Structure formats: C-alpha cells, structure tokens
Please model this.
Amino acid sequence: MNEEFWKKVLLISGITFTALFTSTPFIYMIIVSFAESADFLGRRTGFILTVENYIELFKNPNLHFLDYLRNSVVISGFSAFLTVLIASVAAYSITRLPFPSKSVFLMFVLGFSMFPQISIVGFLFNVMSKLGLINTYVGLILPYTAWIMPLSLWILVSYFSGIPMEIDKQATIDGCTVWKTLFKVMWPLAKPGIFTTFILAFIFAFNEFMFALLLTTDFRARTVPVGIALFQGLHGEIPWGTIMAASTVTTLPIVILIIVFQKNIIQGLTRGAVKG
Amino acid sequence: MTLRLVNLSKKFVSKSRVVVAVDNVSLEVNDGEFFVLLGPSGCGKSTILNLVAGLEKPSGGEIFFGEELVASFEKKVFISPRERNIAMVFQSYALYPHLNVYDNIAFPLRISKHKEDLIKDSVNEVAKLLNIEDLLFAFPAELSGGQRQRVAIARAIVRRPRIFLLDEPLSNLDAKLRVSMRSDLKSLQRRLGVTTLYVTHDQIEAMTLGDRIAVLRAGKIEQIGTPEELYASPCNTFVATFIGTPPMNVLGADLILDKGLWFLEFGGIRLEIPSIKVFSSNLKAGSKIFFGIRPENISIARSSEKAHFLGSVRSIENLGKERLVLVELGSFEITLTTKESGIREGEKIQIYLDPDKVYLFKE
Model:
C-alpha cells in the first residue's frame, strides 16, 4: 500500500462523509414525503410507499400550497429582477464614474448587509402597516430587494470592473449615451455576472423566512417557507408527510437550478477574488 | 476638415496634487493631413486625443473642427462625442467581445439608426476595403491581433467620420505585421482623404506615417514639422535625441572663438566647426552649450591626420547591415555606426566627427 493509495482513500472518504452529512436531511425529507406514516421507523408496519402526501398537497384547497408557490415565484422573481436592475446601474456608476471614497461606500453597503434581520423587523412592520403593504406582493418585494442588494452590488461591481474602460470610450465615440452604453454594451458583456446575481437573488428571496412571516398573515402573499411552517392538520396535529412533500416540491427546483448553473455561480462569486 | 487646437490645456486634480497633462497646446491639422503626436509615455499625447474626441473636457482653450467650435473652456461650449462624428481606434482595439465582426462594424451605424440594408452595404464595402470579408461572422476572440486591428479600423471608417483618431494602434502587433499595417494604414488614409490625428511613442512610426509631426514633452509641444524638418533641424536636445535611431549623441561643450575660428571644446579636445553654424544658432563665444552629432556622421578614421580623437571600443552591437559601436573618449561616451566588421571590444580606434553635421543647442 503506497502513499498515493492512502491519499485517495482519505480523499474519497472525506468527500463521501461531507456529501452524506449535508444530503441526509434532504434524503430523509424525500423518503418521509413518500411514506404513509412519518414515524415509520418506530412502527411495526414499516415503510409503506405512497404518493398520498403529494396528492393531499395539491388537492387540499385549505393548505393553499399552490397559492404559496405562486406567491414565492412571483415575489422572488420580481425581487431578483429589481435587484439586478438597480444593482447593475449602481455597479456601473461605481466602477465608471469618478466619485470619492468608493471603497468606503462599498464597505458601508457590505456592513449594512451584516445587520441581523431581527434588528429591523419592528420598524419594518410599522412602516409596512402604515403604508398598507401587509399581505401584498409589494410589501415583500421592497424589503427583499433592499436586503439582497449588497451582495448583488458586490458581485456586479467585480464584474463591471473587469470590463476595460476603453470599451466604454469606444461606445461613447460610436454614439452611445450612458444608458445605451449600459444596456447595449455593458449588460451583454456582464451577462454571466448578471445571470448569477439574478439566480442568487432569486434563491435568497425564495428561501427567506423572517420577513415573510412578519409581513403576511394569510395566503394572499404568504410564501412557501412560511406556508409550510404553518401547515396544520385537521385536528391540530403536525402533518409531517405533507410538510415533507411540500419541502421536496419547493427544494427540488432550487437544487436543480444550482446544479445546472453551479459553474456560473461559483465563477460569479469568486471573480472579484481571483481577478482582483 | 481642418482641426485646430487653440491654447488647449488639461489639468487632472487629485487629492494630493494637480497634474498638468496638456499645457497650452496650439496646433492646426490641415484637411486630409496625417498628423502625428509623438512623445514619450506620460507626455499628454493621448489626453490631447481624448480632448479632441470629447472623452475629456478641456481645462482651458478651444478646439475647432473646421469653423465649428466643439469645445471651449472659456465659452463653456462642449459638443458631446456622439455629435462630433469622429472615429477612434484604441491600442487594445476595444472590439465588443459579444458581437461578431459584422455587428461590431455595424454598431455605430445601428446606434445612429441607419436602415439595415444601408448598413449591410456599408459594412460589406469597408470589409472589402480592409480584406476582412471572410471574417464577418467570426467573433473577436477568434481573430489574430492583425485581424482585430483591421476590424477596429473598419468600424472606425464605416460611418465616414470627419476626423480619424488613432491611439497607438500598432503597438500590440508583432514587428513584421506592424511594418505591413503601417503601409496599409497610410495608403488607406490617402485613399479616404480623412484628416487623421495619430498618437505614438514610436518615432519610426511617426516618421514613416506622418505628413507632419508634433513632438511633445510634459504636455507641451517642443516642435512641429515634417519628418524631414525634425530630422534635419531639431530645435533642442530633446527632439534631437528623440528623432532618429540610433539616437543622436549629445555632449556638453564650451564654445570657443579663437583667432576668428570657432571651436567646440570638450574633454580636452577641440573640434573646429563652421562659423555659419554658430551664427545661425545665435550662441555666444565662451558659453557652455550642447552639441549633437548623429551616429552615422561619426566614422572610424584610417589615417590619424583626419582623426579627431582616439577612443577605446566599449561594446559592439551587430545590427545586421551595420554595427553600432559604443566608444569611450575619456569621460564621454559616443555611439557610431559602421559597416566595418574587424573591430573588437577594447580596441583603440581613431574617430572622425563630421563638423558639417554637428548640431548646436542652448540646452
């Protein structure tokens, strides 16, 4: 047994452990979603395969699962779109226009994003109720956009600063206004970065729990994470099977999204670090 | 279209200091002329180009395109780059990486909302002119440096600009390609007859391309003239050493008038020079001056009576058709070119300076 062999063993066991450790809850979630009874491990009957949980999930109108799903997709989509739009304009001006203390500004932005969400919920709730935005899409889209902005800004700033200034100058000479330069030249060039930002923003908004819990009281704007958490059985018991089925349905698209675009996402996140 | 710069200045103000990039520059480029701005890096030549393009606003002075005032600090006039109808080619070519060659060339026309069939004709025409018809559907990343350069030039000329601005466009090409692109560029400019402002730090490029050249140093014009004028009568030591390869030798000397004859005295050596040189340069006897002599005007003397000095050879560079010899003369060093191949390092040789080819400078 040479050293190479042991290195390989160590590597493979390390990877296996990490993969199992992180994926076990998901695997368990999927298994439970297909089990007739959630505590099948403790029962004599054992595991009985069923799709009843999924049928219940989609068929039972009292659960409002499809409402939640639609709310989540619309809210996350709009938040991501708005974030990318604003952050790309901001990133473009930060990288292109001469203004003092750019790095201080960026640090502040990052600093604000480090604030715990809980520290602003009271204020946020007051503002939103005064504006009558509780239980509305706008009421969630606005705080989400603000909340995801710092990360998006950082990713896009690193992307835009990688585009040479001469391209801007060329566009100006070719007759572009600042806006045309942004939309016709900068956007297409930063497409991978913009795409990554959109996906990340979407995922952040899709997974968000606290604001959604705070700012919604019924199915009109409630998103999936909160919806699932508040699922109740007919007699007040916790319907684990349905919850797990709902979790599976909402997690899978995100997981697929990440697997398909992992290259872009990693590139987008590390670009600034590698290229400096 | 003539281009006129009047007392043009540009200052860059940062926290710690003020940098004067362009200092009171005035010049006039004639209609259809190929005008070169030549100078070392940091002399402000690219800034002048940016000012003409409208990418920078002047901190003083005015720019005229023909009779039209396009920028004036004093009169607060500033026509945006879009409205100036100029074209510019950058050192890095600045092609749009996400567009293919056709779309790159069509870009300025599309921005100014030309009709698509008109665009097609124009793109095909310039593509033919620049021999890039086969590349129209390739992306910039797939092209060689020379091809990218051609595409950049095609994009620049496609909308028939009033003035053509080129910022070191040949610097990124290899030596052989640079020579061929140089002649292509010159003939293209002749054919289009468009007024051209060309920036370079390479004096060979300037000499071969330019109808006239402005030599710049530290934001100021040192001299404007045709390549021949700059070579034959440089106005100071900076221009003298900047124009010509290998560069002119410049040495400090005393100007001596002795029994009606004029001499240069340096390092214990006296060199008699024609008096007409002194009269035309307006220098006084007894003053400390600089004199210059080009390496090709220094020769190795066979008989000692014609020789001026004895020097020892420090190094020899073989340039192929001739040799560049660095000779030590006491405390001075001078370079000369020779076709002789028998010289060795460390050897003592007799040197002859042609007094008719000596340049005299105040500083």
About this structure: Chain A has a mean pLDDT of 87. Chain A touches chain B through 18 residues (CB under 8 Å). Chain A is about 75% helix and 0% strand. Residues 65-96 of chain A form the longest helix (32 residues).
